[in-house]
Amino acid sequence: MERMGFKIRVLMVVMVAVVICLPSVTFAAQGTATFYTPPYVPSSCNGYQNDGVMIAAASDVIWGNRAACGRMYRVKCIGGTNQGVPQPCNGNSVVVKIVDYCPPGCRGTIDLSQEAFAAIANPDAGKINIEYTQV
Question: Strands 29-36 and 110-113: what pairing?
Answer without folding.
Answer: parallel
